[in-house]
Amino acid sequence: MFDHGIFRITAAAPALSVANPAANAASSIQAIESSDADLILLPELGLSGYTCGDLFSMDSLLSDSLVALKRIAEHTSGHQAMVVVGLPLCVQGALMNCAAMVAGGQVCGIVPKSFLPNYREFYELRHFRAASKSDPVTLCIGPHQVPFGTDLLFVRGEATIGIEICEDLWMPIPPSSQASLAGANVLLNLSASNETIGKAEWRRDLVRSQSGRCIAAYAYASSGPGESTSDLVFGGHCMIAENGTMLGESRRIGDGGEPVVVPTMQVTCDVDLQRIEHDRRVMGSFDDGRAENHTAVRRVGCNLGNSDSPALRLELKRTVEGQPFVPTGDDELASRCSEIFAIQIAGLVKRLSRLPEDQALTIGVSGGLDSTLALLVAIRACDVAGRSRSHLHAVTMPGFGTTAHTRQSADQLIAATSVTAECIDIRQLCLDTFRSLGHKPLGIVIDASTTVDGFQQSLSDVTLGTGDLTFENVQARIRTMLLMSRGFVLGTGDMSEQALGWCTYNADHMSMYNVNTSIPKTLVRFLVRYAADHFFDGGLKDLLQRIADTPISPELLPPAADGSIQQNTEAEIGDYELHDFFLFHFVRNGFSREKILFLASHASFTKQYEADTVAATLDTFLGRFFANQFKRNCVPDGPKVGSVSLSPRGDWRMPSDADVDTFRGGQ
Prior knowledge:
Blueprint: E1 6-13, H1 21-33, E2 39-41, H2 59-75, E3 82-91, E4 94-103, E5 106-112, E6 138-141, E7 144-147, E8 152-156, E9 159-165, H3 175-181, E10 186-191, H4 199-213, E11 217-222, E12 238-242, E13 245-249, E14 265-272, H5 273-282, H6 284-292, E15 298-301, H7 330-353, E16 361-364, H8 369-385, E17 392-396, H9 404-416, E18 420-423, H10 427-437, H11 452-459, H12 469-484, E19 488-491, H13 495-500, E20 513-514, H14 521-534, H15 538-548, H16 569-573, H17 576-588, H18 593-600, H19 611-627, H20 629-632
Helix pairs in contact: 1-2, 7-8, 8-14, 9-15, 10-12, 14-15, 17-19
């Protein structure tokens, strides 16, 4: 029903006149007309006003509230949106605080409030009766019998909607918890929550955490400034959260901005029902909870025929981060980097505790991003563990593709960090291996008389772009052999390389422990910059910033004539920004190729990408991801730091020989 499972919700607090249902119906209709949402949520008792006090007992207020409900129902005839409004209703001679679901010109169902606050400034028991098992299952609204009760779920397409009212959320087990276990993926709360110091943050935490516990979307609409009267002020706090993340919230009175009073406080966001479905599917404990839930529910269909087709919307009302592994905002990014470093260091300290005191910790340092990050983690782990940095052996192994830029960076980095340095030129060993294999590296004929310098000179005549996997893999494996022969080897490869198989099997693919194993490439650069800003100063800080700006390359092919890096990884396989975006949404969210492309078209990437480029890079990602599971099945131990990990022990398990066709859309 909804394109890619996107379901648009508006939570609004319209202008309100206390005890004037006709005026409140008019302002509610105005809020409905101003929204293009699939569902519009309005506040608790929004047709009458929440602060009516003893006026709730008056026939005029009650009858006019019912007239206002019918007016809104008539207005929604042929309208795309479902609308949820609050009003007082007489039920079996008692007054009840209710929420009405209105769609397609009719009242589809009514849900009463389960828990009534009767403390401090609240005294709802003076006027209302809470929901109970003795309630009727239907109410007569005009000529129609309308479903009534707390057991109602409202269904339209992929959306199953549960409703609770204000205080219900504050309970140890809110009704929305039972509704989610019964299948509700969209939870609504009509509220009249007045503003007091610190209450907004508590309210925000409740909404966010309840959406996370229930693995659902949770929309909350609280009474606006027009409700303020006597001793209370209402701020119009409206929020929409999804699975533990706040998607958006309105302005409110007391939010720190200019103390202005606007006619309507509202927020509109797109929630992702497919993501919610995926997360519930993979979280077995949620299903266990559902099995223990014996609450019977009634499902009320709210489908509207042809109007169910998704509206044409050019703008997506949710943020799609182009770098989902990298937090936005300097403070959040710094906090995340600090936490990641702490996890990496703690994992390595534990592993070091199982090694002899004099055991060397060996790491290959190339002058690139990944090995720099691993070295920084190792240094701080040694400091924390009380080990001398001299036990950390940093080995540089220049080969046929090593440039002066990266070698200089590696040498300066090692010198500035007081670790034990060692340099081994691997070119002669590689040349000997080529001879033993009878291989012509990059098409160059070699024999017993070929020298390293002569061969290096011959490489300058090779046409740029010429490939030779044997030439590359021999260098990578020689380096690993040398490292493994020197002690406990710390791996440096990152999660993006694991996803793409961008490593040589049993070479840089292997180590005794890998602190970078679940760090995506887009985040590595920020971690190095964070270390530069927070752990070091002076020349080392500048050096780390220089390394962070270095193009990403394994440097296994000869440099260009001017000495610059020829082998640019991103030029060959596509930008890591795109690959990490695909990795997140494929592994974390389980999305299809079409859904990922849809999100990419709305993502805030650091640069503009043509649609064809995005699609081609996604196909490259999927092809390489499926082809290289055999490498991921035997990766070293390493700490999981985020919601995505490709370790076969910690998070991701798939067959090495799965077919990619289905996941490429049957291409």
